[in-house]
Amino acid sequence: MKDRYDVIVVGAGPAGSTAARFAASGGASVLVLEKDRDVGYPVRCGEAVSHEGVVQFIEPDPRWIAATVSRFRIVSPNGKSIAPRLDGTAYVLERRIFDYELAKLAVREGAEIVTKAYVYDLLRDGEDVVGVWAVVKDEKVEIRSKIVVGADGVESRVGKWGGIDTTTSIHDMESCAQLTLSGIEVEQGILDFYFGEHVAPGGYVWVFPKGKDSANVGIGISVDQAKEKSAVQYLEEFVQKKYPNAGILTRIAGGVPCAKTCDKIVKNNIVLVGDAAHQVNPTSGGGIISGMIGGMIAGQVIGETISKSDIAHLKEYADRWHKRLGWRHEVFYGIKEAISAFSDETLNKICEDGLKLPEEKRTVGGIFRTALWNQPSLLLDVAKVFFS
Ligand SMILES: Cc1cc2nc3c(=O)[nH]c(=O)nc-3n(C[C@H](O)[C@H](O)[C@H](O)COP(=O)(O)OP(=O)(O)OC[C@H]3O[C@@H](n4cnc5c(N)ncnc54)[C@H](O)[C@@H]3O)c2cc1C
Questions:
Q1: Mind listing the domains of the chain with CATH numbers?
Q2: Which terminal Cβ of the chain has fewer Cβ within 10 Å, N or C?
Q3: Is the CB of 257 inside a 6 Å radius of any atom of ligand 1?
Q4: What is the pTM of this model?
């Protein structure tokens, strides 16, 4: 490790490794600092991603694919279910290998990665940020850089240190918990989502198959819904009922910022990517691919910035992100607000109406259109969210 780089990336998650990869391929000298001993571990994720999303960055490889799925199913509060047609494939990953491979792609482009390297502050020269302070293998060190990338996940501190407001309201922060179960019967090739006031108020429970008799079974509910009863309690009740004899291989809990992208994702020479920048899809809570897209755009702009020697060019990252995904996340945020307010009766009715459609018309759009047609009052609920 040198004492000076063009760019220091804090965090070797999917967003950080991808930012490092593209910045390095653009000609910047890049150091990635990861606080954990291993890249990709511990895993705090349901691990579902679309094929379309993944192939933008890496060729699918059976070593990090635990299951391939081609359908998803929505289970409504009364237990009826509908599996809308899905054009495409999704994967349940082995993230500890997937994240590792993303880091290797960054190294292949010339980035250096150091693990057991905890960044605890920004290094300043007067008002200017000129690098980071870190504890690397138990030793305090200062490392200089022209640009610092905060890819330090949902609990990001780089942004706050750099004067960027990264707070998430408790309404938008999803409280998540997940158990990886084994010894259970789980249908292959399908992702299940359970809705309902008693199952996951304002959110959902997911069952994602991970091989023959295993699955990631998790829950996400808004933190303000979890005040009376925690996400963990809801999840344990669900598992007790549905999989009473399961073996529990892992237990995790964590937060997901289901919000719009932070107002600022660049300030002077500080750049935020991934969960740190709130680049999660607010409807699904999925942030792997969108964080990688944020990382890629940031990395490309950083490469250009270094070759032009013009820090002001970094602002381009915020514009390109907004054009590519940021504006869509604003729409998805509205959809999340509408769906999370649906009553059990509404969810049951949507499912029942959808089941009346001929199979070839059971797409997400088809089901939604039928729901609006049969329950025009839904239009008002949705409109309230978009126009308030
Ligand atoms: C229970 C749960 C289920 C989820 N399921 C899905 C899903 O199925 N599909 C999906 O797409 N998304 C899912 N997500 C969201 C997804 O996990 C995140 O959006 C994604 O990991 C974000 O990537 P990232 O690189 O921004 O951050 P992270 O993956 O969180 O990586 C941040 C890295 O920064 C490191 N770090 C933090 N602070 C420091 C520091 N000070 N110094 C050095 N290193 C530091 C951390 O150790 C970590 O390695 C889920 C999240 C949760 C909690």
A1: 4-59+94-168+259-336 (3.50.50.60), 68-88+170-257 (3.30.9.10), 341-387 (no CATH)
A2: C
A3: no
A4: 0.94
